[in-house]
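3.2 Worked example (two chains)
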Amino acid sequence: MKKLSFLALVFLLFSFNLFSQNPGFVRTDPEWVFFHVDSVEAKSHATVTNPYGVAESLRVVMITSNVPPDWEGVGICDINICYAIGITVATALYPPGNSQIYIYYAKLPGRTGSATSTWKVERVSNPSQQSSPVTFGVTTAPIGIKQISSIVKEFNLSQNYPNPFNPATKINFSIPNSEHVSLRVYDILGREVKVLVNENLPVGEYEVDFDAKGLSSGMYYYSIRAGEYVSVKKMVLVK
């Protein structure tokens, strides 16, 4: 009898722990997702975890959003469908374990800027059981910059190539964290002659085109600032 009582207690404790768990919610893309200024949509992926051992109704709820007014807006695609922009709650029956969803942002070609939204996952039968909030961010980059890689271990500013150049050259840099990046060109007297980048960028290695048409031959400097990282290199324009 004592053994049966003990087993019943263990079962009750197991059931209580199982059904008192919160659903999981983890962003699987970087905090900031980079997309080209001429793109019309950007996606940021996430994993929803159903810990209950059986199919369970869960809803993904938008808490806040900050989207440029000239963008179309933010939406969500869960395990069943993609909802229209403006839908802030997505409810679906999730199987046990992990399921992939994504948040998407839409805009017209040529529109620039950054957007964020914060979401959480709730258990429909008990909304107090919910995940921690997760924030998703996307940002555009100006024409003339492209992302080469999204896997970077350290900050770096490479020497431009070709160098010397006439009239165009390329500059590569790497950032291991999502940062606001400023990349500017100065003449030998320290006067700013060109702003190449002034954007929030996600982790990655980037290549930037610099066209010196209209500038005189001579030595120039290019400087990057990304968070606390600062680096300066020189280049030579020969016409």
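3.2.1 Second chain
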Amino acid sequence: MKRITILALVAAVPVAALAAAETYVIDGKHTLPRFEYSHFGYSTQLSRFDKTTGTITLDRAAKTGAVEVVIDATSVDTGYALFNGHLQSENFFDTAKHPTITFKSSRMKFEGDRLVAVEGDLTIKGITRPLTLTVTSFQCMPHPVVKRDACGANATARIRRSDFNLGKFAPAVSDEVTLTIPVEAIRQ
């Protein structure tokens, strides 16, 4: 009897571990990645992308997970339609050939129970570079409106436009860009 109970417990452990991973779908209405850069030294310009999809898989107990974010580069929003088109040209995002920007994680870093960084690969214009997103806030709790668990975070990183063949007008328009991804995701 003792042996059967121990075998049953051992067999149940992997199932319990798998059950701990939760999948969240990114809420595109509350996930609007933005980027900022110096414009000829006059000012810091702030623009965003209006369409984002993706998933987050999270096992908080094991402190592991995965993130996949897909940004629709054709949804770039500078507040000025003519400039939106300029950024979609071959000189910048070249959305006719590369309509999406992606980030796929390879590792999540925790300090205690707090997610502090997500490492992965950023792909823009078909060029992939490693990127570490610094997580400045992270919280999971029941969503008061949709009545399901949700997680949210703010993540930032600095990239160089020239690393992704976006360097037109650098250094007058700064090569270094701050990327910020505020994300909210609903558990499925």
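3.3 Remarks
Residues 3-13 have pLDDT under 50 and may be disordered.
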